[in-house]
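Input chain follows. Return structure tokens only.
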Amino acid sequence: MDDSTKTQPGYGEIDQLKRYANDLAEVYKSEKERRRELEVVNKELQAAYFDTIYRLSLAAEFRDEDTGDHIMRMGRSCRLIAQKLGLPPEQVKNIEHAAPMHDVGKIGIPDSILLKPGKLTEEEFEIMKTHTIIGAKLLGNSKSEILRVGEEISLYHHERWDGKGYPHGLSGEDIPIVGRIVCVMDVFDAPTSRRPYKDPYPMEVALDIIKQESGKQFDPVLVDILLDNSDEITQIKGEVEAMKKSDGIPLEGFKWSDRDIIEGRNKSFNKRYVKP
């Protein structure tokens, strides 16, 4: 008998090897199916997570804005600014999902102040300013990275580049970049949103506010990015309005709300937009 023949497996051993190979194939197939199922579950959990964040933002927004368009635009426009600034993709994603939570602290502001048609008194404005701290407390101490970014945004989105903002009076690059991005985009977008105390303002007014406040209220680098990409920002607004069927008013019909009639904001704009 040839020596090589002695080393070959018998028929029983071959059958055993085949069964073993089939078992391995079944195990691999089961593992692959389990991984696929886990991926589906993870995607569903992530979708539910983002949906919860959106609804939390909407709960605050619906108290003084009846469509929710503002928070939809904030997420997308802040994402655009963050991308153009060259921030890492993960940070861009976090800003996109956290930016809509910037005003979640308004949940703690009384309706008599939040919905007041006229100009706020100094005392009322001090109460209004606490929405930044309330929001940070609501979102604080979370294990979620997005909620931690939301906490930072809520706390710092009313700080000013010149140090005259609130709640801590930070200035320049001492203000976290997420706060600076949301600050400029909030002030750009909020005037064009309908509120109980005002109609939406024209886009030209929002752009003028941003231009005049560059280096004062806003980081000038971010202002330049916004102005350079204003067409894309306008496109975002148009797409959201198409979905929600929101309406605006033409420039010639624009009128400042009583709340926005403040020194330094409407003084020069009224000369151009509001006829006596």
